From TrEMBL:
<dbReference type="GO" id="GO:0031146">
    <property type="term" value="P:SCF-dependent proteasomal ubiquitin-dependent protein catabolic process"/>
</dbReference>
<protein>
    <recommendedName>
        <fullName>F-box/LRR-repeat protein 15-like leucin rich repeat domain-containing protein</fullName>
    </recommendedName>
</protein>
<dbReference type="InterPro" id="IPR057207">
    <property type="entry name" value="FBXL15_LRR"/>
</dbReference>
<dbReference type="Pfam" id="PF25372">
    <property type="entry name" value="DUF7885"/>
</dbReference>
<dbReference type="InterPro" id="IPR006553">
    <property type="entry name" value="Leu-rich_rpt_Cys-con_subtyp"/>
</dbReference>
<dbReference type="GO" id="GO:0019005">
    <property type="term" value="C:SCF ubiquitin ligase complex"/>
</dbReference>
<dbReference type="InterPro" id="IPR032675">
    <property type="entry name" value="LRR_dom_sf"/>
</dbReference>
<feature type="domain" description="F-box/LRR-repeat protein 15-like leucin rich repeat">
    <location>
        <begin position="70"/>
        <end position="182"/>
    </location>
</feature>
Amino acid sequence: MAKKETEAEIERLPIDLLAYTFFLLPSFRDLALASGVCKKWRWAALESLAGRKRLSFADQQMDDESTARLVCAADNLKELNISRSCWGCRITDEGLFKISSAKCIGKLTSISLWGMAGITDSGVINLVSKAYSLQHLNIGGTFITDESLYAIANHCPNLKTIILWSCRQVTESGLIALVNKCRKLESINVGGMRVPLDCFTGLRIISPALQIKSVSQHLNISTQVA
């Protein structure tokens, strides 16, 4: 009898209160379990995602489908972290293509793709070509080439910081194109890259105030998304 009374009390909770409760859940696994209880809880879970400004999958075991589904439900998202960690998100270009269709992409100001070895220029270009509000980008530890930098230069005029640490397939040509077109760029992390030192002198000629960093602290520039 007590169990039925408890269930009845839960059912009387308004959906906005349920959504706020789900908003406080630290684990996306718990949120997924809650959304499977009933239709009302599923709508509350979706509403809780719609109100989120930040999403981080860095410590979650996520795949392309589940990551994209959550991002697409977060209509007001501003900061997205899908960095690879020991047990974390390991999505591919397929996931980036699906994420690119989300309503929030044009609103994103911060994206971290740190260490995502499964992505290529194709997925990155598709994503950044729609992220025109982007200010902070971390694509360090990936296998992108100059093609991604050309796309960023052409589509992200508000970019302020970018981390390219250990992007060894990026060349001087890509960096020059980036600095030439992203006139708001304040900081660039180039540690571990295979570019000549005189390239950095050239970048400073283009943008005298540009901070050029070469440290391996890949998450230190406004891309820590919680």
